[in-house]
Amino acid sequence: MIEFDDTFRRQLRELFVWRRDVRRFRNQALPDGAVERLIDIACLSPSVGLSQPWRFVIVDDPERRRAVIDDFKTCNADALNCYSGERAARYATLKLSGLEQAPCHLAIFADKASDIGHGLGRATMPETTEYSVVSAITAMWLAARAEGIGLGWVSILNPQRIHSVLDVPVSWKFVAYLCIGYPEAECDQPELERAKWEHRRDASEFTLRR
Ligand SMILES: Cc1cc2c(cc1C)N(C[C@H](O)[C@H](O)[C@H](O)COP(=O)(O)O)c1[nH]c(=O)[nH]c(=O)c1N2
C-alpha cells in the first residue's frame, strides 16, 4: 500500500498555496510532451459515472489563436463597460489573460452527448458532466505548478465564438480556455489580491453547520 508522510503532506499544502492563476509568461517554449503529460494527469480525475467527459483541444494554429485573442479583447471591453467609477478604473488596469505570450493554448470542453458511463449519476444533475471537467482542470493546474509550469484560466470569452473558431462537435460544451507556459514570477498571493480587486477570505466565512 502506498503511504504519504508528513513531509509529503506539508509539501502538498505548499503546492496548493503556491498554485497561481498565471497571466504573465516567460518567452520560453514548453518541453516536448509537457502538455500531453498534464492532460494524462487530468484524465486521472474523478468523473460522474466514470464518464470521462473532458475533451482537450491544443490550439496551435496561429489564425485560430488570433481569433481567440480578438474575442478576448471584445469581451474584455464589454466587461469593462459593466463597471463604473473607481471600480472601472481599477478593472482597466488588470491583466486578465496571458493569451499573447503563452506558448501553449489549451481549450477544454465537456462532451454532453457521450454515453461513456451509461448516464450514471447524471439523470437528476446533468451539470455533473461539467463539474467533472472542472475537477480535471484543477488537477492539471496543480500538476503543472509541481513542474514549475503556470496555467491561466481565461473565461472572458464568448463560448459560441470559441466553439466556431475551434470547429468542434456541437455536443461539446465549452468549459475553459487555458494559457500554459513558464511564469515570469512565483507568488503565494493571487494577482487579484495584489491588485486590490478582491482578497482571499478565511474558510470560516464559507462554512456552515446544520
Ligand atoms: C472558472 C474560472 C474562470 C476564471 C478564473 C478562475 C476560474 C476558476 N480566473 C482566475 C482567477 O482570477 C483566480 O483563480 C483567482 O483570482 C485566485 O487567484 P489564484 O488562482 O489563487 O492565483 C481568471 N483569471 C483571469 O485573469 N481571467 C479570467 O478570465 C479568469 N477566469
UniProtKB/TrEMBL annotation:
Swiss-Prot/TrEMBL keywords: Cobalamin biosynthesis, Flavoprotein, FMN, NAD, NADP, Nucleotide-binding, Oxidoreductase
GO biological-process terms attached to the record: cobalamin biosynthetic process
Catalytic reaction(s) noted: FMNH2 + O2 = dialurate + 5,6-dimethylbenzimidazole + D-erythrose 4-phosphate + H(+)
Protein EC: 1.13.11.79
Domain of life, source organism: Bacteria
Residues in Nitroreductase domain copies: 18-182
MF-aspect GO terms: 5,6-dimethylbenzimidazole synthase activity; nucleotide binding; oxidoreductase activity, acting on paired donors, with incorporation or reduction of molecular oxygen
Keyword Transmembrane helix: no
InterPro entries: BluB, Nitroreductase, Nitroreductase-like, Nitroreductase/BluB
PANTHER family: NAD(P)H NITROREDUCTASE RV3131-RELATED, NADPH NITROREDUCTASE
The family this protein is said to belong to: Belongs to the BluB family.
Oligomer status and interactors: Homooctamer.
Identification of the protein by name: 5,6-dimethylbenzimidazole synthase
Taxonomic source organism: Bradyrhizobium guangzhouense
Phylogenetic lineage: Bacteria, Pseudomonadati, Pseudomonadota, Alphaproteobacteria, Hyphomicrobiales
